[in-house]
Amino acid sequence: MAERYELQTQSGKGKMPMVDRTPTGIPGLDEILSGGFPRGRVILLVGGPGTGKTILTSQFLMNGIKTYGENGAFVSLDESKSHYYREMALFGWKFEELEKGKKFAFINASPLRHMPGEVKIGRQAIGRKDFSILSLIEGIKTHTELINAKRVVVDPVTSLIFQYPEMVERRTAILDLVDALVKTGSTCLMTTELRAMGPTVERAIQLEEYLAHGVVILSNAKVGKTYNRVLQVEKMRETPIDMQPRPYKISGNGIEVFPKETIFVD
Ligand SMILES: Nc1ncnc2c1ncn2[C@@H]1O[C@H](COP(=O)(O)OP(=O)(O)OP(=O)(O)O)[C@@H](O)[C@H]1O
Ligand SMILES: [Mg+2]
Asked: Closest residue (by CA) to atom 29 of ligand 1?
């Protein structure tokens, strides 16, 4: 179900044309995103270990199915299906039932990390790296068509990307993946690990952040003696955004963002 929002320009005087949004349904997050992610785009979720990347992306899929009637696919590069289902059931999210009803697909792409050195397709011998990207793209295409997915998650792309130490190769691999995701026609989230400090400290911008259509960062900010979980939208094409880091919490209901609260960092 498409949601359309009128976007105010920054001065508030003119209005940008209506843009289709994909609401996340995550409390507080749609407010920061002017209604949701731009439909059909590929968004990168960057975060350190345990910051909630898998929970946030799964909540996006669950809300899509339950609230907006949009089927979803989860492509996992680090977890088995049984492990994932068990973890998500702790939040009351029964993906197994939705899979049986053909509303959800789990694509286990973790074996792609353990490919042998060279693979033969027909007569052509291709390297392990190219094969893993090709298989991933093929798997995404087939499964999303089968369930008519409107939302797709790839979690996490870090190990795939790191197979390419050469910048030119890495850029091509990321662009191939982004292209394949765009071709599904779905609104897509890919996750990647944060490889430097949070928003308060200068960090190295990763190549994939330039190539994705939008970037959201999850990190920990030190406020006095305590650490706070903070979410920051770094960029989002076709969307006026709130760029302030905003606190979020993880509980038994999943993620909740507090779009009106400010983090004071010393
Ligand atoms: N019921 C809960 N209440 C509060 N926090 C929780 C609850 N369940 C999980 N968490 C928090 O969520 C974190 C895990 O979230 P998630 O697996 O989505 O993170 P991630 O960013 O995907 O991590 P990784 O880098 O390991 O893949 C845990 O570190 C824990 O702090
Ligand atoms: Mg994870």
From this structure: 50
